[in-house]
Amino acid sequence: SSTKISAIPGDGIGPEVFQSVVDIFDATQAPVIWDVIKLSTKMEGKDPISPEEIEKVRANKVGLKGPTTTPIGGGHVSMNVFLRRELTLYANVRPCVSVPGVKTLYDDVNLVTIRENTEGEYSGKEHEVVPGVIENLKIVSEKACLRVAKYAFEYAAKYGRKKVSAFHKASVMKMGDGLFLKKTREVGKDYPMIGYEERNVDTACGMLVANPHLFDVMVMPNLYGDIVSDVCAGLIGGLGLTPSGNIGENNAIFEAVHGSAPDIAGKNLANPTALLLSSIMMLRHLNLFDHADKIEKAVHGVLKDGVTKTRDLGGSATTTEYTKAIISRL
Ligand code: NAI
Ligand code: MG
Fold first, then answer.
1. Pocket of ligand 1 from Cβ distances under 6 Å
2. Packed helices 51-60 and 79-87: angle between N→C axes, nearest 10 degrees
3. Is 262 part of any domain?
4. Contacts of 166 (CB under 8 A, 6+ apart)
5. 210 and 167 in one domain?
6. Are residues 5 and 31 in the same domain?
7. What is the complex's ipTM, to 2 decimals?
8. Ligand 2 centre and the CA of 248: distance in Å?
9. How far is the CA of 138 from the centre of ligand 1 (A)?
10. Per-residue pLDDT of the chain (330 residues; tens, 9 = 90+)
11. 252 shares a domain with 218
12. Tell me, what CATH number does 1's domain have?
């Protein structure tokens, strides 16, 4: 039986890269049914999705999302912020795995950043205490630490990973990061087959750049995760090749890390790889491993081959030509 998936193609290059995924899923007969979610008004103060549509997203549980343009200086709240809040997507997961045929400093990078996605330094709570002094609050709750730590170890167990590293700065933020470490350590005791270590986030960044093979799964508070996941993306050739998942208790939304690329939108030039890799993550989340492996092999094959490359990777293939090359390898 097929699984119903919320499809949010987005805008800019969103619909073009989304079509590529749909075509490839069709070609491999992946057992999913796309339930296209309508975006509503972009008007000031309005939500980007109507209550009826968000109920569909909630009920479908799993979704794939293309990039959405965030209006600057007014307009609706960012779609990502909206979905994260509505569905309590508490963990942001970013695997960074070397892509064949893309030259970078290291081969065989295979890292996963798991970032607390709801609080920490990004709680949005800040105010002026007295003129000239701002207080910017970092919120750390036991509940949020536990659920993201649990997800990190569950992820490690599901995907046969060997080690979870917790990144922190508990030497300075003794209580906040201290609580994060205490809870992560506690959860780790339930997973004796998975190694556990704690690293200062600054030291860890240096180690990542000097030798990315030192790490495996990394879990951390919000701000550190934002930065570390981009460091990891750099190690595999940039944001254009990076998929992500936003995980909640009942819902999971997968998306590429890049934006809507208005400069190349509508020109059939976009590279759909990041959304494709996100859709592969989604298939694995749904335990559809055979389809995930098959599509991944075809994508890697085309990239390794290097004949059909989109412009951003130095080639001249269009989105549809690249998609056809992948389909012909399935
Ligand atoms: P961007 O990622 O859209 O573009 C940066 C550069 O990378 C551009 O030159 C673009 O052409 C190129 N690029 C990005 N994705 C590409 C792809 N798949 N293939 C080939 N080239 C690609 O970032 P930018 O310009 O800062 O943001 C544009 C819009 O996207 C903004 O409204 C922003 O808010 C939104 N955005 C949405 C995100 C999301 O929905 N997850 C994430 C990041 C930005
Ligand atoms: Mg970021």
1. 13, 17, 67-70, 80, 240, 255, 258-264, 270-271, 274, 312
2. 60
3. yes
4. 149, 180, 181, 184, 185, 196, 197, 198, 199, 218, 219, 220
5. yes
6. yes
7. 0.97
8. 19
9. 28
10. 899 999 999 999 999 999 999 999 999 999 999 999 988 766 666 788 899 999 999 999 999 999 998 877 666 778 888 899 899 999 999 999 999 988 899 999 999 999 999 999 988 889 999 999 999 999 999 999 999 999 999 999 999 999 999 999 999 999 999 999 999 999 999 999 999 999 999 999 999 999 999 999 999 999 999 999 999 999 998 888 999 999 999 999 999 999 999 999 999 999 999 999 999 999 999 999 999 999 999 999 999 998 999 999 889 999 999 999 999 999
11. no
12. 3.40.718.10
Structural domain harbouring 125: 105-236
57 occurs within a structural domain: yes
Number of domains in the chain: 2
**Shortest-distance Cα residue to atom 25 of ligand 1:** 261
Q: Which ranges of 29-72 does DSSP label H, i.e. alpha helix?
A: 51-60
Residue owning the nearest CA to atom 1 of ligand 1: 259
Atom of ligand 1 nearest to the CA of 71: 32
Residue nearest (by alpha carbon) to ligand 1 atom 42: 259
Cβ neighbours for 137, distance < 8 A, ≥ 6 positions apart: 123, 125, 126
Q: For a ligand 1 pocket test, name from 260, 320, 323 the mutation site with the most ligand atoms within 8 angstroms of its C-beta.
A: 260
116 and 3 inside one domain: no
Cβ density class 167-194: b for 16+ within 10 Å, e for less:
bbbbeebeebbebbbebbeebbeebeeb
Counting ligands in written order, the one closest to the CA of 225 is 2
Asked if 287 and 250 count as a contact pair (C-beta separation under 8 A), the reply is: no
Boundary-marking domain end, from 187, 215, 236: 236
Could you tell me if residue 99 is inside a domain? no
pTM over 0.80: yes
d(CA 205, CA 167): 10
Looking at ligand 1, which atom is closest to the CA of residue 69?
32
Out of 187, 207, 236, pick the residue that ends a domain: 236
